[in-house]
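Incident log, structure service

09:12 report received: a user says their structure output differs between two submissions of the same chain.
09:20 pulled the input from the user's history:
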Amino acid sequence: MKAYSKEKVLREITPLSDKDFFYIADRSKSEFTYPIHSHNAYELNFTENASGVRRIVGDSVEIIGDYDLVLVSSKDLEHVLEQHKCRSDRVREITIQFSPDIFEKNFVNKSQFDSIRRMLERGQRGIAFPMSAILKVYPILDSLSYEEDSFYAVMKFFTLLYE
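09:34 re-ran on a clean worker, output below:
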Protein backbone atom coordinates (compact mmCIF):
# COMPACT_ATOMS: atom_id res chain seq x y z
CA MET A 1 0.00 0.00 0.00
CA LYS A 2 1.13 3.54 -0.73
CA ALA A 3 1.80 5.71 2.26
CA TYR A 4 0.37 9.19 1.77
CA SER A 5 1.83 12.19 3.52
CA LYS A 6 -0.49 15.05 4.43
CA GLU A 7 1.36 17.22 1.88
CA LYS A 8 0.27 14.85 -0.92
CA VAL A 9 -3.46 15.06 -0.07
CA LEU A 10 -5.25 17.31 -2.56
CA ARG A 11 -7.73 19.77 -1.05
CA GLU A 12 -10.58 19.55 -3.57
CA ILE A 13 -12.85 22.48 -4.28
CA THR A 14 -16.14 20.78 -5.10
CA PRO A 15 -18.65 21.97 -7.71
CA LEU A 16 -21.31 22.09 -4.99
CA SER A 17 -23.17 25.41 -5.02
CA ASP A 18 -24.54 27.20 -1.95
CA LYS A 19 -27.91 27.16 -3.73
CA ASP A 20 -28.05 23.36 -4.05
CA PHE A 21 -28.89 20.59 -1.61
CA PHE A 22 -26.47 18.30 -3.39
CA TYR A 23 -24.30 17.83 -6.46
CA ILE A 24 -24.40 14.50 -8.28
CA ALA A 25 -22.07 13.08 -10.92
CA ASP A 26 -22.97 9.80 -12.64
CA ARG A 27 -19.97 8.69 -14.70
CA SER A 28 -18.81 5.75 -16.77
CA LYS A 29 -15.10 5.13 -16.64
CA SER A 30 -12.41 2.57 -17.32
CA GLU A 31 -9.84 3.74 -14.80
CA PHE A 32 -9.42 5.59 -11.53
CA THR A 33 -6.93 8.44 -11.72
CA TYR A 34 -8.17 11.06 -9.22
CA PRO A 35 -5.61 11.54 -6.42
CA ILE A 36 -6.13 11.14 -2.70
CA HIS A 37 -8.09 14.15 -1.51
CA SER A 38 -10.34 15.73 1.09
CA HIS A 39 -12.98 18.45 0.81
CA ASN A 40 -15.50 20.45 2.81
CA ALA A 41 -18.52 18.60 1.41
CA TYR A 42 -19.89 15.33 2.68
CA GLU A 43 -19.75 12.61 0.05
CA LEU A 44 -21.64 9.44 -0.75
CA ASN A 45 -19.79 7.43 -3.39
CA PHE A 46 -21.16 4.39 -5.23
CA THR A 47 -19.25 2.17 -7.65
CA GLU A 48 -20.51 -0.64 -9.85
CA ASN A 49 -18.37 -3.13 -11.81
CA ALA A 50 -15.23 -1.99 -9.96
CA SER A 51 -14.02 -5.26 -8.47
CA GLY A 52 -10.34 -5.02 -7.57
CA VAL A 53 -10.28 -1.27 -6.87
CA ARG A 54 -8.46 -0.30 -3.69
CA ARG A 55 -10.54 2.05 -1.51
CA ILE A 56 -8.67 4.16 1.03
CA VAL A 57 -10.65 6.20 3.55
CA GLY A 58 -8.50 7.60 6.35
CA ASP A 59 -6.49 4.65 7.65
CA SER A 60 -8.89 2.02 6.24
CA VAL A 61 -7.72 0.19 3.13
CA GLU A 62 -9.93 -2.37 1.37
CA ILE A 63 -10.17 -4.05 -2.00
CA ILE A 64 -13.76 -3.65 -3.16
CA GLY A 65 -16.08 -6.00 -5.02
CA ASP A 66 -18.43 -5.31 -7.90
CA TYR A 67 -20.54 -2.93 -5.79
CA ASP A 68 -19.38 -0.44 -3.18
CA LEU A 69 -21.06 2.39 -1.29
CA VAL A 70 -19.15 4.67 1.08
CA LEU A 71 -20.09 7.74 3.11
CA VAL A 72 -17.48 10.31 4.12
CA SER A 73 -18.94 13.00 6.39
CA SER A 74 -15.83 14.75 7.62
CA LYS A 75 -14.16 17.81 6.16
CA ASP A 76 -10.67 16.45 6.70
CA LEU A 77 -10.95 12.73 5.99
CA GLU A 78 -8.76 11.86 3.03
CA HIS A 79 -10.04 9.27 0.58
CA VAL A 80 -9.29 7.80 -2.82
CA LEU A 81 -10.22 4.97 -5.16
CA GLU A 82 -7.12 3.46 -6.77
CA GLN A 83 -7.12 1.31 -9.91
CA HIS A 84 -5.13 -1.45 -8.18
CA LYS A 85 -6.32 -4.75 -9.76
CA CYS A 86 -9.53 -3.54 -11.40
CA ARG A 87 -9.68 -4.62 -15.05
CA SER A 88 -13.23 -3.51 -15.87
CA ASP A 89 -13.68 -1.00 -18.68
CA ARG A 90 -17.31 -0.33 -17.77
CA VAL A 91 -17.23 1.04 -14.23
CA ARG A 92 -20.12 3.22 -13.11
CA GLU A 93 -19.40 5.73 -10.39
CA ILE A 94 -22.05 7.90 -8.78
CA THR A 95 -20.73 10.62 -6.49
CA ILE A 96 -23.12 12.71 -4.43
CA GLN A 97 -21.61 15.64 -2.58
CA PHE A 98 -23.65 17.64 -0.11
CA SER A 99 -22.96 20.41 2.35
CA PRO A 100 -22.95 19.79 6.09
CA ASP A 101 -24.93 23.04 6.31
CA ILE A 102 -28.12 21.48 4.92
CA PHE A 103 -28.51 19.70 8.25
CA GLU A 104 -28.56 22.73 10.51
CA LYS A 105 -28.83 21.78 14.18
CA ASN A 106 -32.54 22.53 14.48
CA PHE A 107 -33.28 20.46 11.40
CA VAL A 108 -31.21 17.32 11.94
CA ASN A 109 -32.01 17.14 15.65
CA LYS A 110 -35.69 16.45 14.96
CA SER A 111 -36.62 12.91 15.97
CA GLN A 112 -37.54 11.99 12.39
CA PHE A 113 -33.90 12.51 11.42
CA ASP A 114 -32.28 10.56 14.28
CA SER A 115 -31.04 7.74 12.05
CA ILE A 116 -29.59 10.16 9.49
CA ARG A 117 -27.88 12.24 12.21
CA ARG A 118 -26.32 9.10 13.76
CA MET A 119 -25.15 7.89 10.33
CA LEU A 120 -23.55 11.26 9.55
CA GLU A 121 -21.78 11.21 12.92
CA ARG A 122 -20.42 7.69 12.26
CA GLY A 123 -19.46 8.74 8.74
CA GLN A 124 -16.87 11.15 10.11
CA ARG A 125 -14.49 8.17 10.04
CA GLY A 126 -16.09 6.79 6.86
CA ILE A 127 -18.75 4.11 6.49
CA ALA A 128 -18.61 1.28 3.96
CA PHE A 129 -22.12 -0.07 3.61
CA PRO A 130 -22.87 -3.80 3.38
CA MET A 131 -24.26 -5.36 0.21
CA SER A 132 -27.75 -5.60 1.76
CA ALA A 133 -27.85 -1.81 2.17
CA ILE A 134 -26.48 -1.24 -1.33
CA LEU A 135 -29.17 -3.45 -2.86
CA LYS A 136 -31.84 -1.66 -0.84
CA VAL A 137 -30.87 1.80 -2.11
CA TYR A 138 -29.73 0.85 -5.62
CA PRO A 139 -33.03 1.80 -7.31
CA ILE A 140 -32.87 5.26 -5.71
CA LEU A 141 -29.22 5.74 -6.67
CA ASP A 142 -29.89 4.48 -10.17
CA SER A 143 -32.62 7.04 -10.80
CA LEU A 144 -31.47 10.05 -8.75
CA SER A 145 -29.15 11.61 -11.32
CA TYR A 146 -31.89 11.42 -13.97
CA GLU A 147 -34.60 13.04 -11.86
CA GLU A 148 -35.59 16.21 -13.68
CA ASP A 149 -37.78 17.72 -10.98
CA SER A 150 -35.44 19.23 -8.38
CA PHE A 151 -37.98 18.91 -5.55
CA TYR A 152 -38.42 15.19 -6.18
CA ALA A 153 -34.65 14.82 -6.48
CA VAL A 154 -34.27 16.27 -2.97
CA MET A 155 -36.97 13.91 -1.67
CA LYS A 156 -35.14 10.95 -3.25
CA PHE A 157 -31.89 12.18 -1.73
CA PHE A 158 -33.42 12.28 1.77
CA THR A 159 -34.96 8.84 1.18
CA LEU A 160 -31.55 7.55 0.12
CA LEU A 161 -29.95 8.84 3.33
CA TYR A 162 -32.80 7.48 5.43
CA GLU A 163 -32.72 4.01 3.90
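09:41 both user submissions now match this output. Likely a transient worker issue. Closing.
09:42 reviewer note: The radius of gyration is 15 Å. The chain is about 25% helix and 30% strand.
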